[in-house]
Structures are given as structure tokens and as C-alpha cells.
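Next up, sample data:
>
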Amino acid sequence: ESGAINEGYSDVMAEVAEYYITGSNDWLYDTESDVRGSLFMRDISNPMNVGPEGPKPTTYKGDDWVNTSDVSQKNDNGGVHTNNSIFTYWFYLLSEGGKGTNDNNDSYDVKGVGIEEAAKIAWRMHREYLPKKCTFKEARELAIQSVRELSEGVIGTPAEKSVVNAWHAVGVGDKY
């Protein structure tokens, strides 16, 4: 899972960079290369949108999840480029918001905080706390810790509720 989190973090920081450089972003990772006839490598806003790597999971251990115990190259080294969509979709929902039902049949309603606020939370989580070997459940807890610290210790802010509800949307933890 730590490899997928690392890959996901790289993808979202590329979107953040695109936003800061151009003033907007398209939520499509790697639109510069034509890989197997596709105009993008991964669709962060809709992981099920089939790119050259196939559909990605939107829910932790849900549809299209790759078994992380098989670290063979055939299995994407434990799903690092496939399961990374759990982190990227969490970030997208945190930024933009969204409603729906995940693969666990859990309904969710996430209020977006904007890409700038989401980037601050993800950056703090990654820079200050994320260990080399981290699970998605641990990343959730570290994101909550980060948003609380950015809110000067205030618990229950709208941003914290969005962090928690975005993780719930991707199948990691309960909703707020």
C-alpha cells in the first residue's frame, strides 16, 4: 500500500503543479505522451475511465483492486500504479467534492475544500508524518492529524469533515 500511496502522491502533486503553473488543471495524469493510443495515463477525477492501464479502483479493496501481497512485476509490483487511485481519488474528492455510492454500498457526500487547501493537507501529511511503510488506514489518520494541525488544533472544522468523508468515500474509515 505504501507504494500506491507514493505513486498517488506523485500524481496529485503533478496536478497541483499544473494548477499553480496554468491556473487550472484537468485531473488527467500524463497527457503529454500518447501511450497505446490514449490521451492520458490516468484519470484522477474518474479512475474507472479506461486509460492504457485499464480501469482503476475507486474503493479500497473494491472493484479493480490489485492484491498487494503479490509483488511480481506482472501484478504491478503489488498494484502500485493501479491502487494509487485510492489516494488520487481521495485527493480529488477532497479538492472538488462529490456524491455517490462506493463499492461497499456506502453513500458519501464530500464537500470540496479546493485544490490549494487539499494540497496543504496532503503536503503536511506527506512531509511531516508519512512513514516509508504506510497503509491507507494510517494515511487517513495522518491526514486527519494534519488538517487538525493546520486548523490550530480545532477539531470538527469543515476541512476535517471533508478529509474524513473523502476517505470514507474511497472505503477507508467511517464518515464524519
Remarks:
- The chain has six helices and four strands.
- The chain has a mean pLDDT of 91.
